[in-house]
């Protein structure tokens, strides 16, 4: 590997010169060893192509200028030349072997997910990401936080338009983090260019990838696999922080999770549930069932003034807890906690003129989930 | 190569043949008006039907692309909703692949293969009629899904399950039927082409005497016969999943969404070569003609085409590098994909060497063929970059990929089709295309195509995923330029239509040998080619081709 890089040194020097100019026109160099390796491969193959291109197009344009019929050029008679043909078959093979060697090494490294310090489960959902820190009892959803007013052009667009979320994925630097990736519905793809991680999340499969971040910072990416109507609106934000900062953050999240769990057992007021339910509705439900619950039939039924939903509370809860198989409605039993489900059910039954007065208690939801 | 009739009486056979033909067919009254076209079994008429159909579809698919580009002109959602945006990207891809590029090549094959091998018609003329008339049915059905409740296909032209099954709009069943019909059409067309080439060559014409357009189409036809049934299989599995409760691709029922991608790309990768191999054939006819020099390395061109076709069955998973394949599979598909650069390189080197020490002039077909060589090679370079699996983790599903495949398909396949049309228009109509207008079309297309697709490389490298209706602000400039370029390119294509219409109606008269340096058999029949040619087979004389 090392000797090969020495062989490639001249190209890498040029690549290094370009590195400084990587300003939104080129692949980012990134902040992991692998992202740097990939950037190196990218620039090497790029310059190989440039060199071949200059040669081929050079000969071509020389011929076009030099051998013009209008200038009285007479065509030569030759039409084959075995040794030349063998040569231009063999030389590309050698160049390709030269490329394949470092590419193979990098690929092997990318596939080595062993001995990770931390496991994070990444779950793609239409249209958000869910992150679960395995063994730490910390899990949350990450939704795009760019308001629709900005997308519709009714408000000025912020600096990180479409690339901002309510809850970023927080990761420690200098530690090997293994990602376990799957999906609850269709195929998504989790991609952060600065980390050089792009991996499909596929229902029924758990894919692995890993990252070890060298520099603290905020790294942004997007879903890279067409996943339905809001494919363009499921960004990824990674906060890479110092290790001690990460430990503090993790402890805070654990405590908050415990607080939330205790909330399941107490009695909640209607107002409290409504206040809790509205942001959940906006983040989770509104992308299909729309901001005012009007839905988008036939794919996404209306919730406002939906007689079946108002009349049958158990049916309503069942739809949310268990989903509706064969449709785009997922089961939220593991995505939302009982408090959130209770709150959002209460919200949908009382918002938009529903006014049923039902205050669904988290404890009853928790029972249903256990069933 | 250069099969050629003896120079002293090149027109004799064909003129007599044509005269015989006309006399012969004057006896029974052929149907008039629409029935003539519905019932025609003549390869030239069916070829024209294919070409006109594909031109119409080219504009419909192009309008879809312009809707997409209009929405992407600036950040934010201005014109259309994301749902409709997804339908437009999907339909653009489907129409361009299955209804524009593929039928255009089939149309050229219908017109030119019998003329180039000295056959009176295709081997199976009625089947030929059937395979064409399936197409308007298939694509009327496909386009009609846009007006159905829930809209048309919105899952990309690659229609990955389960987005295209469990989560698909109700119209998906019609989409499947449309694709089945189009697939039947392709298979029948391919069988016909194979039967024609293998059985109906002029006496004395060996396989290695065939013009490269015939060779590349023969190989393409075998690819079609091999992979269209795989497509039929995969969409039938979708049909079962959607309507009959199976779970081929539904993980919740024990199915496998990745299986869909393996099957799709086992069809899909040969499919992309189906769209480029005949282009190689056209360019290999045009460059020697206007360089007035024999094609360099005829035999190696044939072998390279065959090698590309064989390799195309072994590289499908390079579309799936981030799906989570095992390491061994990633390595295998990376190496096999890189290998494709070798025969493809041989072809480019051969074209360039044909130019070297030629006697070159720049008629419209040559302009498009030369642009093909340069811009297709650029698309090949980005393809080589994409083959490097680790780097593909960054490139995959970005605008870099969009730039890559548009470079090989637009200035690749489509420029080759246009080159072929300009090259053979004198044979079809008896008139030369209007030179000034054709040049204008060429230069507008060159500027438009590069303005549209070159910035996409940068947008993709900078991190813009494909198939998104709105994008972050750092991609705004690239998209602005792409959109301007796309409208410029799209409008320029009206010039193409104008040139064709003018050429059909009149223009400078073309002789049988319309281009000074052209050498294949089609130039031995009069221009315009009479309805029936080679009813008496010509005697094929190998001129200076290596025996």
From TrEMBL, chain A:
| Cofactor(s), names only, from the UniProt record | Cu cation
Instruction: List this protein's GO terms for biological process.
Output: ATP synthesis coupled electron transport
The entry's family comment says: Belongs to the cytochrome c oxidase subunit 2 family.
Annotated Cytochrome c domain residues: 272-352
> What are the annotated GO cellular component locations?
plasma membrane
Q: Which residues form the Cytochrome oxidase subunit II copper A binding domain?
A: 115-252
Name its species.
Vreelandella nigrificans
The record's GO molecular-function terms, alphabetically, read:
copper ion binding; cytochrome-c oxidase activity; heme binding; oxidoreductase activity
Name of the gene this protein is made from: coxB
UniProt xrefs under InterPro entries: CcO_II (IPR045187), CcO_II-like_C (IPR002429), Copper_CuA (IPR001505), Cupredoxin (IPR008972), Cyt_c-like_dom (IPR009056), Cyt_c-like_dom_sf (IPR036909), Cyt_c_oxidase_su2 (IPR014222), Cyt_c_oxidase_su2_TM_dom (IPR011759)
Which residue spans traverse the membrane? 44-65, 86-105
Q: Which Gene3D superfamilies match?
A: 1.10.287.90, Cupredoxins - blue copper proteins, Cytochrome c-like domain
Catalytic activity reads:
4 Fe(II)-[cytochrome c] + O2 + 8 H(+)(in) = 4 Fe(III)-[cytochrome c] + 2 H2O + 4 H(+)(out)
**Signal peptide position in this chain?**
1-22
Q: What is its main location?
A: membrane
Q: What does this protein do?
A: Subunits I and II form the functional core of the enzyme complex. Electrons originating in cytochrome c are transferred via heme a and Cu(A) to the binuclear center formed by heme a3 and Cu(B).
The Cytochrome oxidase subunit II transmembrane region profile domain extends over: 16-114
Put simply, this protein is called Cytochrome c oxidase subunit 2
How many cofactors are bound and how? Binds a copper A center.
Q: What class of enzyme is it?
A: translocase
UniProtKB/TrEMBL annotation, chain B:
Among PROSITE patterns, the record links this protein to:
COX1 (PS50855), COX1_CUB (PS00077)
Q: Which GO terms describe its cellular component?
A: plasma membrane; respiratory chain complex IV
Respond yes or no to whether keyword Heme is given for this record: yes
First-level EC class: translocase
Which pathway does the UniProt entry assign to this protein? Energy metabolism; oxidative phosphorylation
Q: Where does the record place the region Disordered?
A: 1-23
Gene3D superfamilies per the UniProt record, alphabetical: Cytochrome c oxidase-like, subunit I domain
Record localization: Cell membrane; Membrane
Kindly give the membrane topology term recorded for this protein. Answer: Multi-pass membrane protein
Give the matching InterPro entries.
Answer: Cyt_c_oxase-like_su1_dom, Cyt_c_oxase-like_su1_sf, Cyt_C_Oxase_1, Cyt_c_Oxase_su1_BS, Cyt_c_oxase_su1_dom, Cyt_c_oxidase_su1_bac
A GO molecular function held by the record: cytochrome-c oxidase activity
Entry's Gene Ontology BP terms = electron transport coupled proton transport; oxidative phosphorylation; respiratory electron transport chain
The UniProt record lists the Cytochrome oxidase subunit I profile domain at: 37-541
EC id: 7.1.1.9
Catalytic activity annotated for this protein?
4 Fe(II)-[cytochrome c] + O2 + 8 H(+)(in) = 4 Fe(III)-[cytochrome c] + 2 H2O + 4 H(+)(out)
> What this chain does, per the record?
Cytochrome c oxidase is the component of the respiratory chain that catalyzes the reduction of oxygen to water. Subunits 1-3 form the functional core of the enzyme complex. CO I is the catalytic subunit of the enzyme. Electrons originating in cytochrome c are transferred via the copper A center of subunit 2 and heme A of subunit 1 to the bimetallic center formed by heme A3 and copper B.
Which family is annotated? Belongs to the heme-copper respiratory oxidase family.
Write the protein's name: Cytochrome c oxidase subunit 1
* Organism listed in the record: Vreelandella nigrificans
Question: Species lineage, top-down?
Answer: Bacteria, Pseudomonadati, Pseudomonadota, Gammaproteobacteria, Oceanospirillales
**Gene symbol?**
ctaD
